[in-house]
What does this fold into?
Amino acid sequence: MTAFLIRRIAGAFGVVAGVAVVVFIILHLTGDPAAAMMPLESTQAEIAAFRHAQGFDRPLWVQFASFAWNLLHGNFGLSLRHGEPALGLALERVPASAELAVTALVLAVVVAVPAGTVAAVKRNSALDVAARLLALVGQSTPVYWLGIMLILIFGVQLGWFPVSGTGGWQHLVLPAITLAMFTMARIMRLTRGSMLDVLQSDYLRTAVAKGVGSFRLIWHHALRNAWLPIVTAIGIELGTLLSQAIITETIFSWPGIGRLAYQAILDRDYPVVEAVVILGAVSFVVINLVVDLAYAALDPRIRYE
Amino acid sequence: MIAAAELPAPAADAVPGRRRFIALLATPATLAGGLIVALVVICALFAPWLAPHDPNAQNLAEAAKPPAWLGGSTAYLLGTDHLGRDILSRTIWGARVAAIVGFSVVLIGCSIGVSLGMIAGYVGGLLDDLIARVADVQLAFPFILLAIAVVGVLGPSLWTVILTLGVTSWVQYVRIVRAETLSLRDRDFVQAAIAGGASRARILMRHILPNIASPITVLATFEVARTVILESALSYLGLGVPATVPTWGTMLADGRQYLDTAWWMGTFPGLAVSLTVLGINLFGDGLRDALDPRSR
It folds into this structure.
């Protein structure tokens, strides 16, 4: 177990380092970063001065060494727009994003797992068809369009919920539903498929033969065995959620890290972009490590060596 | 002997053949999906002839007209936008960008992913490890952020969008292709080909690839759907194709600002994206069931 942990953590560091290298390459090899960061109307002299001040006129390997060195110290430089440390700006936005993402994920799981289970148990019934249709529509609806439609119907027409910013729980409703929909559809399909497999297994037939009640049979015996692929999917879906959060936060003016990233890219505020991307990669890697460990807890057959 | 070894690899269940495959494909859901996809492709191919108006022709006197059945004019069936451009024509033209981007991106991603996947699975060893690590990095990179960053640096253009989405969409293929290749590598027909002196490239192209074509086709279908969503998301954020080209994403972004006065501006292009993706997904589900009966 310890050896496994060490290996996985080393691997996680490797992944984050890889992401850092990619960020460096994108920002430094795809053109002149000084020209990209400066306002379009800047003069050549201004760009040259900025290039020198930021150290972009040094040899590439020196720049990379200093980038890596600063990264190890959590130093992403100052935001070009706000003049504050980029990492601090990004970290400030994490709670709002986490609030939205966790709410969406909980919402998705709470709806999708029971719905998928019922659909599998009552296969080909009206309920099953309805659940599958909902999943199909959920997977086909682009997150931004769903957001806009929810704003149109529940914000503009009915006026039930506020359509932007943060505040009470009411502010959370529309963005959370928007963000949850795609993940909900995915988990529902997966739960249904996974449950169908389990329901046909021998040990479940045995449990039926033994006279285990149907409620207990499904929610205890079957679902516990169907969990594994579902948990894997939830781990992967969190990555999708991070990506979709950028769009959702932009639509609903939610003050999270996704909106910060979008704004930073429009402002050409590259230190902030770097900080957000690395932070995103770190959280993705950590979440997946936790998911791996959760397997062992859920399935005693899995032992890491 | 060599001739025997060079026989095409046996398909898993080639016996009932094409007729059974078509029968499996002919479910109402798959047909509906195929029909939607066909409609989109037709719009993409024949947009200049199908669209009743020039998609970029502005006519401020006719701005923000509602759809025909809500008191608008029959000249603009789905209404007009804030600049008086015909929504129907722009939606038809939008299919063109969606189709171009969808197919090119999948072609690029699929080529990279399948090549890397076969190498990883067949050659194994250090190369396999290396490819797996690169895939991990790709997965840990919030995709949209990568796309936004690249487009932000390179500037929005059709080719930037295609290239960015293309080179970032290979991971899914690698996973599947690697696993399938691994399971085929030790099968008798591959061993026979090796014994017959076939080169590595020949084995991969002639013996492995035909046998993994089904899962790749299914995945590629779903990837087209994913790409259509991503492309319109980038356009929506103003980072996709330049605004002079009508796309569903930019139409939605325009419509976002007029939700309370002209809801049709954002609703129809959004419906177009949803329907397209729904159609591809329905078709992909049917294709998967027909090609791989186990997965049902």
Notes: The domain at 13-295 of chain B is CATH 1.10.3720.10 (MetI-like fold). The CA atoms of residues 76 and 86 of chain B lie 6 Å apart. Chain B has 13 helices and no strands. Chain B touches chain A through 41 residues (CB under 8 Å).
